[in-house]
Design goal:
The protein is 40% helix and 25% strand. It has 234 residues and is α/β, with parallel strands linked by helices. It has a single domain, classed as Vaccinia Virus protein VP39 (Rossmann fold). It has an eight-stranded mixed sheet. Strand 2, helix 5 and strand 3 form a beta-alpha-beta unit.
Amino acid sequence: MNNVNADPAELAKFSDLAHRWWDPDSEFKPLHQINPLRLGWIDGQVSLAGKRVLDIGCGGGILSDSMARKGADVTGIDLSTKALKVAQLHALEAGTQNVSYREISAEALAQEQPAGFDVVTCMEMLEHVPDPSSVVRACSALVKPGGWVFFSTINRNPKSFLFAIVGAEYLLRMLPKGTHEYAKMIRPSELAAHCRAAGLSLEQTRGMEYNPLTQRYWLSSDTSVNYLVSSRKP
């Protein structure tokens, strides 16, 4: 792996946690299940091979790793030290090339490397930050003119409260209780406004649906709960 700035002894400490991030039956199971959908949707709009890609809020590196395997040169950033150690450990264990991880905010990296990336992804993260518009502005600053920015998040309405919080966290126990906060969920119109204010043009919006009986996810035109947005910098 290129540019590994890590102490193997430190990485070893987090190996137990790493197996939870990368255990497809752990609390991260939903991320593993939706990852092929996210990856295919992104790669279908811009071929990732040979692109310089930034994954904001990368966590344990599930999406970052899969984009690197598509031939992208990926940088994953997060503010969780433990998650990044997990991501680094997995890259070493799996032998994933072209992926590196840094503990830095999107805003700080935007000052350091403006227009530094062909593609920026920010998935399942905006609903967890105090000021999502600031992250969207940073994404716009980080991507090159003509480049792509991809988001995914959760709508805010009675149905999304029922499905994403009551259903996923309390009834089906797919996610730990308290994973999502209703007030921080973002309507597609709000995300669209953040994008336009940051100078990004909207390209496509897709919904992501889930059937708890078949445990299957698929993309659709229904954006009432989970949804994805692609945008470009002119």
